[in-house]
């Protein structure tokens, strides 16, 4: 907590100092171009990463569901064999797998 607090306190002064040094070296065009670069980069990153993150989240969720089903089958394999419940288990697993494959393609 102390490390984060010290960085939050020191950062505005550091940014101000380097902005002033940049202004002394290059005039007003230097700081404006640097801050413009950061603003444009942040907006582009937000626009491009939004859909990618939600898609990746959904794919990871579906992969987790498939792994969970697969683990359930391994744990309950003996019970499934005794009750002759293979067809129902296979159909449930096929549904989960087909959702994962459909989402991945």
Describe this structure in words.
This protein has helices at residues 2-26, 29-75, 77-83, 86-104. The protein has one domain. With 105 residues, the protein is an all-alpha fold. It is elongated. The chain contains 4 helices and no strands. The two termini are 44 Å apart.
Task: Give the uncertain stretches in residue-range form.
Answer: none
Major sheet: none
Strand segment count: 0
SS content category: mainly alpha
Task: Determine the number of helices (DSSP H or I, runs of at least 4 residues).
Answer: 4
What is the string of SSEs from the N terminus onward?
Answer: HHHH
Shape, per Cα inertia axes: elongated
Termini Cα gap: 44 Å
Beta-strand residue percentage: under 5%
Q: How many individual domains?
A: 1
Helix fraction?
over 70%
Rounded to the nearest angstrom, the radius of gyration is 27 Å
- Mean model confidence by pLDDT: 86
Quick description:
GO terms for molecular function: ATP binding. The protein is mainly alpha-helical and 105 residues long.
Keywords:
105 residues; mainly alpha; elongated
């Amino acid at each position: 907590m102390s490390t984060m607090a010290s960085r939050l306190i020191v950062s505005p002064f550091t940014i101000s100092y380097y902005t002033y040094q940049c202004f002394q070296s290059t005039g007003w065009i230097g700081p404006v171009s640097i801050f413009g670069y950061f603003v444009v980069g942040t907006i582009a990153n937000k626009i491009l990463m939004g859909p990618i993150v939600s898609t990746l989240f959904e794919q990871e969720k579906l992969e987790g569901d498939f792994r969970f089903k697969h683990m359930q089958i391994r744990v309950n394999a003996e019970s499934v064999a005794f009750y002759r419940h293979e067809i129902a288990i296979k159909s449930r697993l096929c549904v989960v797998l087909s959702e994962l494959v459909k989402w991945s393609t």
